[in-house]
Amino acid sequence: MGVHEIKPGDVLLAVEDISLSFGAVRAISDVSFDIRKGEVRAIIGPNGAGKTSMLNCINGFYHPQQGTITYKGQKRSAMKPYEAAAQGIARTFQNVALFKGMSTLDNIMTGRNLKMKSNLLTSMIWWGKAEKEELEHRRFVEDIIDFLEIEAIRKTPVGRLPYGLQKRVELGRALAAEPELLLLDEPMAGMNLEEKEDMCRFILDVNDEFGTTICLIEHDMGVVMDISDRVMVLDYGGKIGDGVPEEVRTNQNVIDAYLGGGH
Amino acid sequence: MFYREAGQFKSSYKEDQAVFPILQDRIGIAILLLVAFIGIPLFAGDYFVGAIMTPFLILALAAVGLNILTGYAGQISLGTGAFMAVGAFSAYKLATFSIALGGAEATLPLILTILLAGVVAALVGVMFGIPSLRIKGFYLAVATLAAQFFIEWLLVKVGWFTNYSPSGVITAPPLVVLGYEFHTPAEKYLFTLTFVVVMAMAAKNLVRSHIGRGWMAIRDMDIAAEIIGFRPLQTKLTAFAVSSFFCGVAGALWAFVHLGTVEPEAFGINRSFSILFMVIIGGMGSILGAFIGAAFITLLPIFLNNVPPMIGWNIGVDMVAHLEFMIFGVLIIFFLIVEPHGLARLWTIGKEKLRTWPFPY
Amino acid sequence: MEDFVIEFMFFLEVLFSGLLTGTLYSLVALGFVLIFKASGVFNFAQGAMMLFAALSLVGFQEMLGVHWTVAFLLTVVVMILLAWCVEKFVLGKLVNQEPIILFMATIGITFFLDGFGQTLWGSDIKPLDIGLPTGSLDFGGIFVDQLELVAGATAGGLVLGLAIFFNKTKIGRALRAVADDHQAAMSVGISLRNIWIIVWSVAGLVGLVAGIMWGSKLGVQFSLSLLALKALPVLMLGGFTSIPGAIIGGLIIGAGEKLAEIYLGPFVGGAIENWFAYMLAMVFLLFRPQGLFGEKIIERV
């Protein structure tokens, strides 16, 4: 690819002057920020601040009208979500987007799809190549299942699982892709305290053990401040603060947006 | 002998991923295959083998095809009949083309002819599947009707497809494989059975592979599927291709093995619907379901035609047809209400109950 | 020059006849749109409902020997009863199921109604005559079928009536609320069941009117049910939720089909009206997936 090796601490993804609008509605206006390799980066902000839209731009689901996104040193043109996935960007969703008709195991196995190569014919025959490949990836997925402590629900259709577990399975599916950049859209929304703590632990473990760069969105400031290396704050589609948690916590604009902005 | 899995421990992922992980299931399927391959041809009468079992198997194959597209990949199709027709007429063209080339020596082998006919159907399926990227859900269902009507019209209007047969009817060549002619109903049945068993296994393997998971992912949530890396068009087109391949082979078998002579009308919109019903009643997203559904839909008219006279109730032929319509309608609704996943799901639930029987859990 | 004028007159005649046939398609499509708008159900049974209504109307006329107006009223009662049954025995049991399941259930309804109607009233072709004018009118050399004119006017009237019903009445407002968001509508106290019964009744009524028009034209027979299939490309063109779309889509399909049959048909062996509409709609959809009047959806995750 001709891309130089990106070391921890280097910029993995840079967003410059991005604007996105739907008709007359401006979702994001002129936002720039970057994500460094190996960090936990948070984007926070009130409802409707443009957080999810930002993630959608990063993984190619929305195409911003203005601005550039540079990933691994390469400026990206408008790309499809599956192309972003192929480059190592995985994500979870605000409203769990699991495949309801499939089991936990199968859901996580879908995360391996980009690494599975057997074609129509070898898959039909199964014996030999396809089976070997399937078992190899099954082993990897079982490690993720162990890691997330969801062994007991392996064969359960995800539609029957409680919300907290669904979120965990979704994280598993994203991890199965061995992403370089993991986008988490409100990973703790709708969870109780215990579940939130579990999720925090998983996020930090993923970051620690696999060195995965994480960009997460949260509505609730509390948890985010504890686990993030750097935090960006959006409000009404614009950036109003960016920096390490302490900086952001004392930023007057941020305090206004959260407390005094009349929301 | 109880239906239990107690004491059967799986010590590898391979065993865990087997199609029939439980011993009793494996015994059951072995018995079923023995009966199908040896019992039926030996002991059943010609009528049962030729007029019930063979068409049942072929329609089940078409239902497997549609199930791949609708049940697994979530793309509704009302054009199954058309893809069967493509298979039937391509097989005919392929078979007669080689004869025209020069003598019996040069004919394409029969098996290859039928498989190639499936490939032609797959290509046509892909063509009509291309709109599926932009056209979704019901719009797509309507678009597949375009395939149904257009292909039917084409086969009737363009003489080339029937080698300019004045009646529009094609006659299949004799079924000869490696010099052996399949002639009696039992032989034809075995020929069909072999095809269907091999292809059903292939289908089962496919839906449990990463390709099958891609179809289900697109079905369950297409946006999420795309974001985790499945290419929507490629995934859908593969489903269209594989589905049409199965339907095409079924169509070729229908023309060559079951009917012998066939006209395009045999693959009309009603054929499409009846196969859709097999999928719904048998169970969407289940290979086994396609077989159960096909058995049900094949047997019901026979039942309706024979049972009322037996109990001394004589009703007219057109009345039977109307009754059939009504009963199909009611059954479809009934199954959708009781169990949208069809008889196959009821079968699975039954087995789960049986595992712990006589205890509740 | 003479030839050209005659050609042009003939073209106009074909076009006009196509447009008027198109209004008949629109009538069927209208029933689809009503139900889809209010309940999100893609009602495959609209054609079967039309056939059933027409069969009942003729059946009542024959059986009771009454004036058609009486038979009409009886049929309206039957259609309301049918709507009630559909809600009670089918839709009511399938609340919260996916749209594809509901769609397939309506295929079940189609088969049931086709079988039931013919069991009840027989399957012979029956003439339907309620005194609609027949024969052609001469407009300065262009001949126009009177029945088609009446059909066009009726379709126009129905659309106007439905527009008023939807926009000016309380029930209409409730219908629109339900179409927007089922749960929100229920939470402000709108009864989903009643709305569904009403909307299926109205669709039944539209089906009855369409059935009368088509029945007068072709006789009441099983193929009327298949005509509904022709309304599907109309829907694709017009969008599933747009009443004006159903009308304009019908006109485009009607005119396009007639013109293609006359000017294109001879070159390809004729009988292209079976598929032309579908192909036209499909090609059109490739460029505008939401139909003429459908709303563009912003996808979210």
The CATH top-level class label of the largest domain in chain A? Alpha Beta
Strand content of chain A: 15-25%
Tell me the span between the first and last alpha carbons of chain C. Answer: 63 Å
- What percent of the residues of chain A sit in helical stretches (DSSP H or I)? 25-40%
Computed Rg of chain C: 20 Å
Q: What separation lies between the terminal Cα atoms of chain A? A: 47 Å
* Shape, per Cα inertia axes of chain C: globular
- CATH topology label of the largest domain in chain A: Rossmann fold
CATH superfamily of the largest domain in chain A: P-loop containing nucleotide triphosphate hydrolases
Keywords:
heterotrimer, B: about 350 residues, mainly alpha, two-stranded antiparallel sheet, two-stranded antiparallel ribbon, 14 helices, about 70% helix, about 5% strand, globular, C: about 300 residues, ABC transporter involved in vitamin B12 uptake, BtuC, 11 helices, 2 strands, transmembrane helix (chain B), Branched-chain amino acid ABC transporter permease (chain B), membrane (chain B), LivM-like (chain B)
Describe this structure in words.
The complex is a heterotrimer of chains A (263), B (361) and C (301). Chain A folds into 2 domains: 1-88 and 179-263, Rossmann fold; 100-177, no CATH class. In chain A, 45% of the residues are buried. The model of chain A has no long low-confidence stretch (mean pLDDT 89). The radius of gyration of chain A is 19 Å and the shape is globular. Chain A is built from 10 helices and 10 strands. By secondary structure, chain A is α/β, with parallel strands linked by helices. Chain B has one domain (54-356). Helix content of chain B is 72%, strand content 3%. Chain B contains 14 helices and 4 strands. In chain B, the strands form 2 sheets. A two-stranded antiparallel ribbon of chain B has the order 1-4. In chain B, helix 4 packs across helix 5 and helix 4 crosses helix 10. The longest helix of chain B is centred in the C-terminal third of the chain and has 28 residues, at 232-259. Chain B is globular, with a radius of gyration of 21 Å. The mean pLDDT of chain B is 87. Chain C has 301 residues and is mostly helical. Chain C has a single domain, classed as ABC transporter involved in vitamin B12 uptake, BtuC. Chain C is 74% helix and 3% strand. Chain C has helices at residues 2-39, 46-64, 68-90, 99-121, 146-168, 170-180, 182-187, 192-218, 223-238, 243-268, 276-287; strands spanning 136-139, 142-145. Chain C is globular, with a radius of gyration of 20 Å. The termini of chain C are far apart. Chains in contact: A-B, A-C, B-C. At the B-C interface, helix 6, helix 9, helix 11 and helix 13 of B face helix 4, helix 9 and helix 11 of C. Chain A: InterPro entries: AAA+_ATPase, ABC_AA/LPS_Transport, ABC_transporter-like_ATP-bd, BCA_ABC_TP_C, P-loop_NTPase. Chain A: It holds the Pfam family BCA_ABC_TP_C. Chain A: Keywords: ATP-binding, Nucleotide-binding, Transport.
